[in-house]
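Hey, weird one. I pasted the Histidine triad (HIT) family protein sequence into the form twice and got a warning about non-standard characters only the second time. First submission, copied straight from the form history:
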Amino acid sequence: MAGEPQPDCLFCKIVSGEIPATIVRETETTVAFRDINPQAPTHVLVIPRVHHPDAAALAAAEPAIAADILREAGQVAADEKIVDTGYRVVFNTGAGAGQTVFHAHAHVLGGRGLQWPPG
């Protein structure tokens, strides 16, 4: 069921502490941790503690938590000192867009020039 932890979800296991991660921030509704395959000098994932398969599903079901993710993405950028040089917040939605873990999450990327359009 949406919102409930899923036993086969990597990110649900990180939220529960079952799988370790390099956590950089935590709130009541979110967890932010370093990506294990960084695509930029700063690459942090911000996830909701509740399980929803993608950003669209999260926003439809729990818009306040979707807003929390964006707020935390900005705080991660500030903590990582990439606000002045610029950063990108990316939500991949669906396998065709590169989503590989089907638990809503934002990528915070920065610390180098980010080309447009992206890959």
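That's the output from the first submission. The warning seems to come from a hidden character in my clipboard, not from the data itself. The two ends are 33 Å apart (CA to CA).
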